[in-house]
Amino acid sequence: CVGINLRYRFHVSLLCKLVSCFGDRAGQFFSSGHTNNWAVLVCTSRFWFNYRHVANTLSVYRSVKRLGIPDSHIVLMLADDMACNHRNPKPATVFSHKNMELNVYGDDVEVDYRGYEVTVENFLRILTGRLPPSTPRSKRLLSDDRSNILIYLTGHGGNGFLKFQDSEEISNVELADAFEQMWQKRRYNELLFIIDTCQGASMYERFYSPNLMALASSQVGEDSLSHQPDLAIGVHLMDRYTFYLLEFLEDIHPASKTNMNDLFKVCPKSQCVSTPGHRTDLFLRDPGSVLITDFFGSVRKVELTMETINLTDPIDAESGELQKEMHTYADQLPVSEIIHQKPKQKDWHPPDGFILGLWTLILLVFFQTYGVKHLKHIF
Amino acid sequence: PNIQQGRQRCIYGEVSPTEAGGGSDSPAPKPAASPPSVPRPKDDFQEELVIRPLHSGDIYTSFQFRTLWETDFTRENKVSHYRLFPKSLGQVISKFSVRELHISFTQGYWRTMQWGQPYLPSPPGAELWVWFQDSLTDVDGTWKELTNVLSGIFCASLNFIDSTNTVQPSASFKPLGIGNVTDHQIVCTENLTPWKKLLPCGSKAGLAVLLKSEKLFHSSFHSQAVHIRPVCKDDQCKTTSWELRQTLNVVFDLHNSGQGKNEWSLFKMFSRTLTEACPVASSSKIYIDITDNSQGEQFELSPATPLLSQAVVLGDRRTFSVYDLTQQITFGTMRSLNLLIRGKSSDMLRPLLHAERYVAGYGLQTGEIHTLMYNNHPYRSFPVLLLDSVPWYLRLYIHTLTVTSKGKDNKPSYIHYQPSKDRVRPHLLEMLVQLPPNSVTEVTLQFERALLKWTEYTPDPNHGFYVGSSVISSLVPSIVAMDTNNSRERPLFSSFFPSKEESSYFVRVYTEPLLVNLPTPDFSMPYNVICLTCTVVAVGYGSLYNLLTRSFQIEEPSPGLAKRIANIIRKMRGVPPL
To answer: Where is there biased composition of kind Pro residues (chain B) (predicted)?
Structure first.
């Protein structure tokens, strides 16, 4: 495993160990069935008092990035900007805990959809892949049938809906249908859906596509509560479920063997006040055999080769026959040119007399047809 | 290679210094007949930092990174080997036939009266100006694609730029092109991260090491920009090379970042010190403006440096202390450079041109835009070109346009007005006005606010809608003779706008953006209306319908159990019931 030139940061140790020492570990390695990982992290709330939703999403972004998923495979949607908000006493930072030790915004963050771009339509288009052709790659979910996707939603929600930016909603039926479209187009291998809103369990009630696992922070009829306020910043910093989820994920490293059953135990009722729920009936594998890193980490299949490749020299640009005309810098404010510039006539307007002449013609034709005798009644 | 639209992600960073160094230093001899020779590297990278202590105790720092590359993007076989020039921008230039591109992201407003003129002006928010090659036919389609690609590269919401807020000015910006004058944008670390990744050394070596977002955004003014244009290679200007300038201007506030003390150092401003120059840079310098400090009486500078340089910038001859980071001696024994500037700068010259803009009026129906332009020169007058791009939902009444200086009417020598079309294009007003010496010129224009369709409102409509800054371009008389020889080696900050004549220099001033409230409907009304209507219909009409169409029948009470059994037996027998 030496001499591999990697572009993305990921941990080689796990894969090398498994590939080099075949055994029952190889069986487990190949049984997960996925070859790449994607993450779609969405914060749907606007306004300063919803700071905690942005902090929630950024914590999951941070964990997912730390465990190996590169920025090109993460679609991060934040409906409002808290870090550089003018009310933030510490600009360019978003904290998750009131002792201010962990800046989840960090120095290397790439937000793909920000502000007004976070809409229900854009979210569904990302999931189903129906984006306009000029959308840049960083804003697309380019998953295939061997991708494991993690979808995390947070914001304000209710029984059967999630509110986007205080102006529109997405219902659980729409979400279930979007996942079914993804299944039919084979856009995922396995999908983990986590939602941290009030009555979050209602959002996964309607799923019907295979290979979906869902977690929610509260049951129908319960509210998800926020964790703790910070007096300097003035708002609540994080929601309870995601706070304990972040604590749990901080202990995970790319080679850990923790499975989904441990994830279901995060934030029991004593800590969360609400009852977190989960749904695994649509999932084909046993949750106990699904590793956390199957969704939160990143997999790269590496092929070792001993062949050598000869690189050709770069093509040296021949100057050739360049036109030898003189270039000059343009005059920045040529006053005389501007004053004598003729205004451009963009639209053609008919000459003024035209309308009058047209009506005269119409009247004359009328009187000619119906007789001149009517004319004396007019004049 | 096929050019992909936008890069894989918001960043691009394929070329690393080590790869590039290995490629150009020792090329393998080709098996073909051409003799082996060391190819002269055709690209060049320079970085510089200018620090100017301001009169109010704040400090103005300006980073400039320039990559020059002699290549032809419009050639048939596409350029494939990129060394210092970032590949994402190179592909943008060749795919969209771009001749010049200027994009800037700014947070904060430049206060001309307190801080003087900036080296590179920029309006609050985001601004994008593009000039296309003459060979391009479909400008609108290419513009839309280009804004989408740039929004992916810089992680910015540039995809909201469409025909409703794009203008094609006839005179303000030379060469002619299309542009979008300021969209309201929030600038944050996610814009800085891809910008840093375009630099050859990234943020790992050289001056870019100082660019830490936590300190940079805790400032009064922060502006980052990318300028791409072709420049003359030499005096005769027969060939051109492509220049990419990345600039970052920050003004640190005395009380926010300086804790009230008149003592600035690199560590205090950026929480970092410098340890080395970028290895691929041909020059890496720091300039400190010490013009008013020849004897060291206003502020002191440590560590001291013997290098001095003079340059004519913004119409004035300024003296600078220079630190050359390519010399090891600059870093001293500690191997790190932390500049200390103690003391305040003296009074600065009043800037000759500055502008203000505000909205007057009351209510949500009409209003008035006032633009004030100040000419502070005691005896010279000069022309200014005012460019205003107002969104279509503020309907301007051009017949109410008045331009007054010193109380008298001042007729502009050139007016170009393109009226707006609802939901298609904005208003465009360009005027060439001669400002009399030592005066204030006021331009007033009345407008009426339009009611938008309810789907066109943003999720937070009560915040208001932004109107972009006005752009005022002018040739201002200069105190000192400007240098018209544009190809001589000059510090980067003085060579952005080329000067054609010696007595004046070009300056561009941006006004504040305006925030206007449009009449906003109550968005809870549809729900209320539906509830009320359904209630009225159900209760009112339903009752009336029942009264008119209900008919009454007499019904026997149901008989007891014994009688019911007897009736059943009788039915079976065929006898009438009881």
So the answer is: 28-39
Which residues of A are catalytically annotated?
156, 198
Please report the sign of the dihedral spanned by the C-alpha atoms of residue B294, residue B295, residue B299, residue B300: positive
Q: Which residues contact B248 (CB under 8 A, 6 or more apart)?
A: B62, B63, B195, B211, B216, B222, B223, B224, B225
Q: List for chain B the helix, strand, coil content (%; round to 5).
A: 20, 35, 45
Q: Are residues B194 and A110, on separate chains, in Cβ contact within 8 Å? A: yes
Instruction: Give the number of residues written for chain A.
Output: 379
How many Cβ atoms are within 10 Å of B279's Cβ, its own excluded? 16
Residue of A nearest to B168 (CA): A344
Separation of alpha carbons A12 and A298, rounded Å? 11
What is the pTM for the complete model shown?
A: 0.80
Closest residue, chain B, to A108 (C-alpha): B193
Any CB–CB contact under 8 A between A47 and chain B? yes
Domains and CATH numbers, chain A: 34-296 (3.40.50.1460)
Kindly determine whether residue B81 and residue A314, on different chains, have CB atoms separated by under 8 Å. yes
ipTM, interface predicted TM-score of the complex:
0.79
* pLDDT class of A149 with cuts at 50, 70, 90: very high
Q: Are B100 and B134 in contact (CB under 8 A)?
A: no
**Mind listing the domains of chain B with CATH numbers?**
43-343 (no CATH), 353-516 (2.60.40.1170)
The token duo for A225 is 């509560």
Instruction: Pick the closest to residue B71 from A169, A315, A260 (CA basis).
Output: A315
Asked if A341 and B414 come within 8 Å (Cβ–Cβ), the reply is yes
